[in-house]
Description:
The protein is 25% helix and 29% strand. The termini are far apart. By secondary structure, it is an alpha/beta fold. It is globular, with a radius of gyration of 25 Å. Helix 7 (318-325) runs parallel beside helix 8 (340-352). Strand 12 (239-245), helix 5 and strand 13 form a beta-alpha-beta unit. The strands form three sheets. The protein has a six-stranded antiparallel β-sheet. The chain has a six-stranded parallel β-sheet with strand order 15-14-13-12-16-17, with helices on both faces. 33% of the residues are buried. The chain has three domains: 34-125, Beta-grasp domain (Ubiquitin-like (UB roll)); 129-227, Elongation Factor Tu (Ef-tu), domain 3; 239-364, Nucleotide-binding domain of ferredoxin-NADP reductase (FNR) module (Rossmann fold, 3-Layer(aba) Sandwich). Flavin-adenine dinucleotide binds at residues 67, 165, 182-185, 198-201, 203-208, 228, 247, 250, 363, 365.
Amino acid sequence: xxxxxxxxxxxxxxxxxxxxxxxxxxxxxxxxxxxKLVINDDKEYIVKGGSSLLSALIGxxxxxxxxxxxxxxxxxxxxxxxxxxxxxxxxxxxxLSKEELDGNIRLSCQVKIKEDMKxxxxxELFNVREYEATVEILEDMTPEIKKVRLRLNEGExxxxxxxxxxxxxVPAYEGNDExxxxxxxIASSPExxxxxxxYIGYTGGIxxxxxxxxxxxxxxxxxxxxxxxxxxxxxxxKEMVLVAVGTGIAPILSILRYMADNRIDRKAxxxxxxxxxxxxxxxxxxxxxxxxxxGFKFIPTLSRVKEEHxxxxxxxxxxxxxxxxxxxxxxxEAYLCGSPAMIxxxxxxxxxxxFTDDAIFYDRF
Length: 365
Ligand SMILES: Cc1cc2nc3c(=O)[nH]c(=O)nc-3n(C[C@H](O)[C@H](O)[C@H](O)COP(=O)(O)OP(=O)(O)OC[C@H]3O[C@@H](n4cnc5c(N)ncnc54)[C@H](O)[C@@H]3O)c2cc1C
Ligand code: FES
Protein backbone atom coordinates (compact mmCIF):
# COMPACT_ATOMS: atom_id res chain seq x y z
CA UNK A 1 0.00 0.00 0.00
CA UNK A 2 2.81 2.32 1.10
CA UNK A 3 4.68 1.49 -2.13
CA UNK A 4 1.61 2.32 -4.29
CA UNK A 5 1.12 5.69 -2.55
CA UNK A 6 4.80 6.54 -2.96
CA UNK A 7 4.75 5.63 -6.68
CA UNK A 8 1.56 7.69 -7.19
CA UNK A 9 3.14 10.67 -5.44
CA UNK A 10 6.31 10.42 -7.58
CA UNK A 11 4.33 10.15 -10.83
CA UNK A 12 2.08 13.07 -9.82
CA UNK A 13 5.06 15.26 -8.90
CA UNK A 14 6.84 14.33 -12.12
CA UNK A 15 3.75 15.14 -14.24
CA UNK A 16 3.32 18.44 -12.40
CA UNK A 17 6.98 19.32 -12.94
CA UNK A 18 6.65 18.48 -16.63
CA UNK A 19 3.60 20.71 -16.93
CA UNK A 20 5.44 23.59 -15.24
CA UNK A 21 8.46 23.03 -17.52
CA UNK A 22 6.22 22.98 -20.61
CA UNK A 23 4.46 26.19 -19.52
CA UNK A 24 7.82 27.82 -18.87
CA UNK A 25 9.13 26.58 -22.23
CA UNK A 26 6.06 28.02 -23.94
CA UNK A 27 6.56 31.37 -22.23
CA UNK A 28 10.30 31.54 -22.87
CA UNK A 29 11.37 29.43 -25.85
CA UNK A 30 8.09 29.97 -27.74
CA UNK A 31 7.89 33.61 -26.71
CA UNK A 32 9.53 35.31 -29.64
CA UNK A 33 8.76 38.81 -28.38
CA UNK A 34 8.25 41.65 -30.80
CA UNK A 35 9.72 41.40 -34.28
CA LYS A 36 10.32 43.92 -37.05
CA LEU A 37 8.45 43.32 -40.30
CA VAL A 38 9.62 45.36 -43.28
CA ILE A 39 7.35 45.37 -46.33
CA ASN A 40 8.50 46.44 -49.81
CA ASP A 41 11.61 48.02 -48.24
CA ASP A 42 9.70 51.13 -47.15
CA LYS A 43 7.06 50.17 -44.59
CA GLU A 44 8.06 49.00 -41.15
CA TYR A 45 5.81 47.35 -38.55
CA ILE A 46 6.46 45.93 -35.09
CA VAL A 47 4.50 42.68 -34.79
CA LYS A 48 4.04 39.91 -32.23
CA GLY A 49 6.56 37.10 -32.78
CA GLY A 50 5.15 33.57 -32.90
CA SER A 51 2.06 34.49 -34.89
CA SER A 52 1.63 33.55 -38.52
CA LEU A 53 2.75 36.09 -41.09
CA LEU A 54 -0.81 36.16 -42.47
CA SER A 55 -2.41 37.01 -39.11
CA ALA A 56 0.28 39.61 -38.37
CA LEU A 57 -0.53 41.27 -41.71
CA ILE A 58 -4.28 41.16 -41.01
CA GLY A 59 -3.50 42.69 -37.59
CA UNK A 60 -1.93 45.62 -39.45
CA UNK A 61 -5.05 45.80 -41.72
CA UNK A 62 -3.05 44.49 -44.67
CA UNK A 63 -5.29 41.90 -46.33
CA UNK A 64 -3.72 39.07 -48.32
CA UNK A 65 -6.07 36.74 -50.26
CA UNK A 66 -6.80 33.81 -47.96
CA UNK A 67 -9.76 31.81 -49.22
CA UNK A 68 -9.29 28.96 -46.70
CA UNK A 69 -8.83 31.28 -43.73
CA UNK A 70 -5.24 30.22 -43.01
CA UNK A 71 -5.57 26.43 -43.13
CA UNK A 72 -3.01 25.98 -45.89
CA UNK A 73 -5.60 24.48 -48.22
CA UNK A 74 -6.23 27.21 -50.82
CA UNK A 75 -2.72 28.32 -51.81
CA UNK A 76 -3.90 31.95 -52.17
CA UNK A 77 -1.88 33.70 -49.45
CA UNK A 78 1.44 33.82 -51.30
CA UNK A 79 4.00 36.51 -50.48
CA UNK A 80 7.68 36.89 -51.33
CA UNK A 81 9.87 36.45 -48.26
CA UNK A 82 13.19 38.26 -48.68
CA UNK A 83 14.59 37.69 -45.16
CA UNK A 84 13.53 35.50 -42.21
CA UNK A 85 10.69 33.00 -42.37
CA UNK A 86 12.75 29.81 -41.91
CA UNK A 87 12.67 26.79 -44.22
CA UNK A 88 9.71 25.98 -46.47
CA UNK A 89 7.28 23.65 -44.65
CA UNK A 90 5.86 20.44 -46.13
CA UNK A 91 2.36 22.04 -45.90
CA UNK A 92 3.45 24.73 -48.37
CA UNK A 93 5.02 22.45 -50.98
CA UNK A 94 1.83 21.33 -52.79
CA UNK A 95 1.03 25.00 -53.58
CA LEU A 96 4.43 26.22 -54.77
CA SER A 97 5.92 25.65 -58.23
CA LYS A 98 9.67 25.28 -58.71
CA GLU A 99 9.86 28.88 -59.98
CA GLU A 100 7.98 30.11 -56.90
CA LEU A 101 10.27 28.16 -54.56
CA ASP A 102 13.32 29.58 -56.35
CA GLY A 103 11.78 33.05 -56.06
CA ASN A 104 11.26 32.69 -52.25
CA ILE A 105 7.47 32.69 -52.51
CA ARG A 106 5.82 31.35 -49.35
CA LEU A 107 2.34 30.72 -47.99
CA SER A 108 1.96 33.52 -45.44
CA CYS A 109 -0.48 31.49 -43.32
CA GLN A 110 2.16 28.80 -42.76
CA VAL A 111 5.17 31.05 -42.07
CA LYS A 112 5.62 31.82 -38.36
CA ILE A 113 7.31 35.08 -37.39
CA LYS A 114 10.23 33.94 -35.25
CA GLU A 115 12.75 36.60 -36.33
CA ASP A 116 12.79 40.00 -38.03
CA MET A 117 11.45 39.64 -41.55
CA LYS A 118 11.53 41.43 -44.88
CA UNK A 119 8.80 40.64 -47.37
CA UNK A 120 7.45 41.89 -50.67
CA UNK A 121 3.74 42.13 -51.56
CA UNK A 122 2.12 43.71 -54.64
CA UNK A 123 1.54 47.42 -53.93
CA GLU A 124 -2.18 47.13 -54.82
CA LEU A 125 -2.78 44.97 -51.73
CA PHE A 126 -2.36 48.15 -49.66
CA ASN A 127 -5.62 49.31 -51.27
CA VAL A 128 -7.46 46.24 -49.98
CA ARG A 129 -9.72 47.25 -47.10
CA GLU A 130 -12.28 45.80 -44.77
CA TYR A 131 -15.86 47.06 -45.20
CA GLU A 132 -18.94 46.70 -43.04
CA ALA A 133 -22.09 46.12 -45.10
CA THR A 134 -25.79 45.36 -44.74
CA VAL A 135 -27.59 42.54 -46.53
CA GLU A 136 -30.07 44.40 -48.74
CA ILE A 137 -31.15 41.65 -51.15
CA LEU A 138 -31.18 37.90 -50.47
CA GLU A 139 -33.00 36.23 -53.30
CA ASP A 140 -33.17 32.71 -54.77
CA MET A 141 -31.98 32.67 -58.36
CA THR A 142 -32.25 28.86 -58.63
CA PRO A 143 -32.85 26.25 -55.89
CA GLU A 144 -29.06 26.20 -55.40
CA ILE A 145 -27.97 29.81 -56.02
CA LYS A 146 -28.74 32.98 -54.04
CA LYS A 147 -28.16 36.54 -55.10
CA VAL A 148 -26.81 38.61 -52.21
CA ARG A 149 -26.62 42.40 -52.37
CA LEU A 150 -24.38 43.96 -49.73
CA ARG A 151 -24.71 47.71 -49.23
CA LEU A 152 -21.70 49.43 -47.71
CA ASN A 153 -22.09 51.98 -44.92
CA GLU A 154 -23.24 55.45 -45.98
CA GLY A 155 -20.43 57.30 -47.75
CA GLU A 156 -18.23 54.21 -48.19
CA UNK A 157 -17.03 53.22 -51.67
CA UNK A 158 -15.29 50.13 -53.03
CA UNK A 159 -13.19 50.46 -56.18
CA UNK A 160 -12.57 47.28 -58.14
CA UNK A 161 -11.93 46.00 -61.64
CA UNK A 162 -14.76 44.04 -63.31
CA UNK A 163 -13.97 40.35 -62.66
CA UNK A 164 -12.35 40.76 -59.22
CA UNK A 165 -13.58 39.21 -55.97
CA UNK A 166 -14.00 40.01 -52.28
CA UNK A 167 -13.70 37.81 -49.20
CA UNK A 168 -16.74 37.41 -46.99
CA UNK A 169 -16.12 36.98 -43.27
CA VAL A 170 -18.28 34.12 -42.03
CA PRO A 171 -18.83 34.27 -38.26
CA ALA A 172 -19.25 31.25 -35.99
CA TYR A 173 -22.85 29.99 -36.06
CA GLU A 174 -24.78 26.99 -34.76
CA GLY A 175 -22.87 23.96 -36.04
CA ASN A 176 -19.76 25.94 -36.96
CA ASP A 177 -17.48 27.28 -34.25
CA GLU A 178 -14.76 28.84 -36.41
CA UNK A 179 -14.71 32.20 -38.17
CA UNK A 180 -13.65 31.77 -41.82
CA UNK A 181 -13.18 33.87 -44.95
CA UNK A 182 -14.39 32.74 -48.38
CA UNK A 183 -13.87 34.31 -51.81
CA UNK A 184 -16.89 35.50 -53.86
CA UNK A 185 -16.72 37.24 -57.23
CA ILE A 186 -18.37 40.62 -57.55
CA ALA A 187 -21.22 40.53 -60.08
CA SER A 188 -22.21 44.22 -59.99
CA SER A 189 -20.70 46.98 -62.08
CA PRO A 190 -17.62 48.82 -60.83
CA GLU A 191 -19.59 51.98 -61.55
CA UNK A 192 -21.78 51.08 -58.53
CA UNK A 193 -19.43 51.75 -55.67
CA UNK A 194 -21.73 51.68 -52.64
CA UNK A 195 -22.97 48.09 -53.03
CA UNK A 196 -21.83 44.76 -54.43
CA UNK A 197 -23.86 41.85 -55.75
CA UNK A 198 -22.73 38.25 -55.23
CA TYR A 199 -24.13 34.92 -56.46
CA ILE A 200 -23.50 32.21 -53.89
CA GLY A 201 -24.08 28.55 -54.70
CA TYR A 202 -24.98 26.03 -51.96
CA THR A 203 -22.38 23.29 -51.37
CA GLY A 204 -23.12 22.23 -47.79
CA GLY A 205 -19.81 23.77 -46.68
CA ILE A 206 -19.24 26.35 -43.91
CA UNK A 207 -19.82 29.62 -45.82
CA UNK A 208 -22.59 28.50 -48.13
CA UNK A 209 -24.55 26.93 -45.25
CA UNK A 210 -24.24 30.27 -43.42
CA UNK A 211 -25.46 32.23 -46.45
CA UNK A 212 -28.25 29.84 -47.46
CA UNK A 213 -29.53 28.81 -44.00
CA UNK A 214 -28.61 31.54 -41.50
CA UNK A 215 -28.10 34.91 -43.25
CA UNK A 216 -31.09 37.31 -43.24
CA UNK A 217 -31.95 40.59 -44.91
CA UNK A 218 -30.74 43.46 -42.72
CA UNK A 219 -27.83 41.45 -41.21
CA UNK A 220 -24.48 43.22 -40.88
CA UNK A 221 -21.51 41.45 -42.48
CA UNK A 222 -17.83 42.16 -43.08
CA UNK A 223 -16.03 41.85 -46.40
CA UNK A 224 -12.51 42.66 -47.50
CA UNK A 225 -11.14 43.23 -50.96
CA UNK A 226 -10.93 43.69 -53.85
CA UNK A 227 -8.60 40.91 -54.98
CA UNK A 228 -7.70 38.97 -58.06
CA UNK A 229 -5.90 39.08 -61.37
CA UNK A 230 -8.94 37.90 -63.35
CA UNK A 231 -10.42 41.10 -64.76
CA UNK A 232 -11.47 42.89 -67.94
CA UNK A 233 -8.57 43.89 -70.20
CA UNK A 234 -9.02 46.98 -72.29
CA UNK A 235 -7.97 45.41 -75.64
CA UNK A 236 -10.88 46.96 -77.50
CA UNK A 237 -9.78 45.67 -80.89
CA LYS A 238 -10.05 42.06 -79.68
CA GLU A 239 -13.27 40.06 -79.88
CA MET A 240 -14.28 38.58 -76.52
CA VAL A 241 -15.31 35.00 -75.79
CA LEU A 242 -17.01 34.81 -72.37
CA VAL A 243 -17.75 31.40 -70.84
CA ALA A 244 -19.47 30.62 -67.52
CA VAL A 245 -21.21 27.77 -65.76
CA GLY A 246 -23.32 28.22 -62.58
CA THR A 247 -22.06 30.90 -60.18
CA GLY A 248 -19.15 31.45 -62.60
CA ILE A 249 -21.55 33.95 -64.18
CA ALA A 250 -20.76 36.48 -61.40
CA PRO A 251 -17.51 38.02 -62.72
CA ILE A 252 -18.76 37.75 -66.31
CA LEU A 253 -21.85 39.83 -65.40
CA SER A 254 -19.60 42.44 -63.80
CA ILE A 255 -17.59 42.65 -67.04
CA LEU A 256 -20.75 42.92 -69.18
CA ARG A 257 -22.31 45.53 -66.88
CA TYR A 258 -19.10 47.54 -67.08
CA MET A 259 -19.15 47.33 -70.89
CA ALA A 260 -22.83 48.34 -70.99
CA ASP A 261 -22.35 51.23 -68.53
CA ASN A 262 -19.45 52.57 -70.61
CA ARG A 263 -21.05 51.86 -74.03
CA ILE A 264 -18.00 49.79 -75.01
CA ASP A 265 -18.39 48.85 -78.65
CA ARG A 266 -16.67 45.48 -78.75
CA LYS A 267 -17.72 42.15 -80.15
CA ALA A 268 -18.47 39.75 -77.26
CA UNK A 269 -20.19 36.36 -77.20
CA UNK A 270 -21.31 34.92 -73.87
CA UNK A 271 -21.67 31.12 -73.60
CA UNK A 272 -23.65 30.26 -70.43
CA UNK A 273 -23.83 26.56 -69.56
CA UNK A 274 -26.43 24.95 -67.27
CA UNK A 275 -28.14 21.58 -66.83
CA UNK A 276 -31.82 22.50 -67.27
CA UNK A 277 -33.79 25.74 -67.96
CA UNK A 278 -34.33 26.04 -64.17
CA UNK A 279 -30.58 26.47 -63.71
CA UNK A 280 -30.39 29.50 -66.02
CA UNK A 281 -30.88 32.85 -64.29
CA UNK A 282 -30.63 36.62 -64.85
CA UNK A 283 -31.79 36.01 -68.43
CA UNK A 284 -33.63 39.35 -68.69
CA UNK A 285 -30.48 41.21 -67.64
CA UNK A 286 -28.28 39.24 -70.06
CA UNK A 287 -30.69 39.84 -72.96
CA UNK A 288 -30.62 43.58 -72.13
CA UNK A 289 -26.93 43.58 -73.08
CA UNK A 290 -28.02 42.81 -76.67
CA UNK A 291 -29.32 46.42 -76.64
CA UNK A 292 -26.63 48.12 -74.57
CA UNK A 293 -23.47 46.41 -75.94
CA UNK A 294 -23.44 46.76 -79.74
CA GLY A 295 -21.43 43.59 -80.52
CA PHE A 296 -23.02 41.33 -77.87
CA LYS A 297 -24.35 37.84 -78.54
CA PHE A 298 -25.76 35.39 -75.95
CA ILE A 299 -25.60 31.60 -76.34
CA PRO A 300 -27.15 29.68 -73.42
CA THR A 301 -26.65 25.92 -73.64
CA LEU A 302 -28.20 23.09 -71.61
CA SER A 303 -26.69 19.69 -70.93
CA ARG A 304 -29.67 17.80 -69.42
CA VAL A 305 -32.75 18.88 -71.37
CA LYS A 306 -35.87 16.73 -71.24
CA GLU A 307 -38.86 16.66 -73.60
CA GLU A 308 -41.09 18.57 -71.10
CA HIS A 309 -38.65 21.52 -70.98
CA UNK A 310 -39.63 22.53 -74.54
CA UNK A 311 -36.13 23.93 -74.97
CA UNK A 312 -35.41 25.13 -78.48
CA UNK A 313 -31.93 26.55 -77.81
CA UNK A 314 -28.49 24.95 -77.90
CA UNK A 315 -27.86 21.59 -76.26
CA UNK A 316 -24.73 20.17 -74.66
CA UNK A 317 -21.98 21.59 -72.49
CA UNK A 318 -20.29 24.92 -73.27
CA UNK A 319 -17.36 23.13 -74.94
CA UNK A 320 -19.78 21.76 -77.59
CA UNK A 321 -20.80 25.32 -78.53
CA UNK A 322 -17.20 26.59 -78.55
CA UNK A 323 -16.32 23.81 -81.02
CA UNK A 324 -19.35 24.79 -83.10
CA UNK A 325 -19.13 28.60 -83.15
CA UNK A 326 -15.41 29.45 -82.92
CA UNK A 327 -13.28 28.93 -86.03
CA UNK A 328 -9.99 30.18 -84.69
CA UNK A 329 -8.44 32.31 -81.95
CA UNK A 330 -7.11 35.05 -84.19
CA UNK A 331 -7.89 38.53 -82.78
CA UNK A 332 -9.85 37.08 -79.85
CA GLU A 333 -9.44 36.77 -76.09
CA ALA A 334 -11.34 34.54 -73.68
CA TYR A 335 -12.70 35.03 -70.14
CA LEU A 336 -13.70 31.80 -68.43
CA CYS A 337 -15.22 31.19 -65.02
CA GLY A 338 -16.51 27.98 -63.45
CA SER A 339 -15.39 24.60 -62.19
CA PRO A 340 -11.78 23.45 -62.65
CA ALA A 341 -12.99 20.62 -64.93
CA MET A 342 -14.87 23.06 -67.22
CA ILE A 343 -11.90 25.44 -67.34
CA UNK A 344 -9.44 22.64 -68.22
CA UNK A 345 -11.65 21.36 -71.04
CA UNK A 346 -12.31 24.82 -72.47
CA UNK A 347 -8.67 25.95 -72.27
CA UNK A 348 -7.65 22.83 -74.20
CA UNK A 349 -10.21 23.57 -76.95
CA UNK A 350 -9.25 27.25 -77.16
CA UNK A 351 -5.56 26.41 -77.42
CA UNK A 352 -6.29 23.93 -80.22
CA UNK A 353 -8.11 26.77 -81.99
CA UNK A 354 -5.03 28.97 -81.74
CA PHE A 355 -5.72 31.10 -78.62
CA THR A 356 -2.38 31.96 -77.03
CA ASP A 357 -1.84 31.68 -73.25
CA ASP A 358 -1.90 35.45 -72.85
CA ALA A 359 -5.33 35.64 -74.51
CA ILE A 360 -7.02 33.26 -72.04
CA PHE A 361 -8.03 34.56 -68.59
CA TYR A 362 -9.82 32.43 -66.04
CA ASP A 363 -10.95 32.02 -62.44
CA ARG A 364 -11.68 28.48 -61.26
CA PHE A 365 -13.95 27.75 -58.32
C1 LIG B 1 -11.45 33.54 -56.63
C2 LIG B 1 -12.67 32.79 -56.19
C3 LIG B 1 -13.92 33.30 -56.49
C4 LIG B 1 -15.07 32.61 -56.09
N1 LIG B 1 -16.30 33.11 -56.41
C5 LIG B 1 -17.40 32.42 -56.05
C6 LIG B 1 -18.71 32.90 -56.41
O1 LIG B 1 -18.87 33.97 -57.04
N2 LIG B 1 -19.80 32.17 -56.04
C7 LIG B 1 -19.66 30.99 -55.33
O2 LIG B 1 -20.68 30.37 -55.00
N3 LIG B 1 -18.43 30.50 -54.99
C8 LIG B 1 -17.32 31.20 -55.31
N4 LIG B 1 -16.09 30.72 -54.95
C9 LIG B 1 -16.01 29.51 -54.07
C10 LIG B 1 -16.13 29.95 -52.59
O3 LIG B 1 -15.00 30.73 -52.22
C11 LIG B 1 -16.20 28.77 -51.62
O4 LIG B 1 -15.11 27.92 -51.84
C12 LIG B 1 -17.49 27.98 -51.74
O5 LIG B 1 -18.59 28.83 -51.56
C13 LIG B 1 -17.53 26.86 -50.70
O6 LIG B 1 -17.35 27.42 -49.43
P1 LIG B 1 -17.85 26.70 -48.13
O7 LIG B 1 -17.25 27.40 -46.95
O8 LIG B 1 -19.33 26.60 -48.16
O9 LIG B 1 -17.25 25.25 -48.29
P2 LIG B 1 -16.10 24.60 -47.37
O10 LIG B 1 -16.58 24.47 -45.98
O11 LIG B 1 -14.83 25.31 -47.60
O12 LIG B 1 -16.02 23.17 -48.00
C14 LIG B 1 -15.36 22.95 -49.26
C15 LIG B 1 -16.15 21.96 -50.05
O13 LIG B 1 -16.27 20.75 -49.32
C16 LIG B 1 -17.57 20.23 -49.45
N5 LIG B 1 -18.27 20.13 -48.16
C17 LIG B 1 -17.90 20.72 -47.02
N6 LIG B 1 -18.74 20.42 -46.05
C18 LIG B 1 -19.68 19.60 -46.60
C19 LIG B 1 -20.83 18.97 -46.09
N7 LIG B 1 -21.18 19.08 -44.82
N8 LIG B 1 -21.56 18.22 -46.95
C20 LIG B 1 -21.20 18.10 -48.23
N9 LIG B 1 -20.12 18.67 -48.76
C21 LIG B 1 -19.37 19.41 -47.95
C22 LIG B 1 -18.34 21.17 -50.31
O14 LIG B 1 -18.36 20.63 -51.62
C23 LIG B 1 -17.54 22.43 -50.31
O15 LIG B 1 -17.60 23.10 -51.55
C24 LIG B 1 -14.94 31.40 -55.36
C25 LIG B 1 -13.67 30.90 -55.06
C26 LIG B 1 -12.56 31.57 -55.46
C27 LIG B 1 -11.23 30.99 -55.12
S1 FES C 1 -4.84 31.13 -46.50
FE1 FES C 1 -5.28 29.42 -47.72
S2 FES C 1 -3.32 28.54 -48.00
FE2 FES C 1 -2.92 30.23 -46.76
